[in-house]
């Protein structure tokens, strides 16, 4: 009896211990894709307003109507068709997205080769050390899904789980069969290298180059630094509205590409393009924005033109949202860092593209009708609607006279893979329009 009681007591103690441990593990918080708790959706004049006009919340993310008055006017195309070659402005495509024939390997077409090498943070000056964010194992972005924002500033996420760390990434270099050793070649820098979204890229380039629709170009896929969003190395690289990533590519990646792949890369900015998806899509634009003397052709799938910049920059509080729109928070003193000290500066208000003379950038991009909508429930800041941000980009680009093509895509989610397979060949051809083809 005593032994039986001891065994039972031990079992109960064990169960209590295991239960306590289980309860101490935070549950995975997944993407919200709905209006965050406590968000302002009623007072447009108040801070951090989220406009839900024309959004169908029966889906997650909500489905957007392209006739939304917040979006620019666009030409709706017959289902399954794309804009005419070289056409500029805004277009609506879908809902059907079949892969373009150029994404399929064809017999008799010369095939390029791909060479790969690895780069680590110890090889870097600009991103050494890297950033690592401590998330719960198996719970992607868990620490930022349960964090808070600064008092009175819903745009300023507090991330305490980020710290210095080590990164390693793969660089894949596509060299077309037509490349002549020793000559300078045009090239495209591709962010988020290795993504499944680009699985057709080499085949597409083989076909387009053979058809003389794009020049024989080098394609450089650069892996990201790891993880995602605020507090991560990937977020630090892609979502910062600065020239740092462009300098990382220029000073630390391209020399190794030339050495490892035995190629010469052109210095002519008209022969240099950037491409990316989501946050690497906004990074592709940022590279050209800060260095139009280095890059002038940009292609992006669901670019993150929203407030993802971290650490919080007091001189550009809305991050990439401020390319096209004013910061949504309260008016007040603006601060910049001078010699490590926060100093009052001119208040923000005029978006970057609106405030600057037009730059020689040619930009192709798309956004889906079910693209991301406030995926993180902890940041109800009025600056996390991906579809709206892309539409507002199209508006300001048109106002400033940029050469651009924007596709609003029906039946498409974030970085929609079927849409990429449908549009990649025509997008590449559009981006490289005007460049001489031998």
UniProtKB/TrEMBL annotation:
**Keyword entries, A-Z:** Signal
Work out whether the entry's keyword set contains Signal.
yes
Tell me if Chaperone is a UniProt keyword of this record.
no
Q: Which superkingdom, per the lineage?
A: Bacteria
Family annotation (InterPro entries):
AB_hydrolase_fold, Esterase-like, Mycobacterial_A85_antigen
Query: What Pfam families has UniProt attached to this entry?
Result: Esterase
Q: Which residues form the signal peptide?
A: 1-29
Which intervals of the chain are annotated as region Disordered? 58-79
- Give the protein's recorded name: Esterase family protein
Which species does this protein come from?
Bradyrhizobium barranii
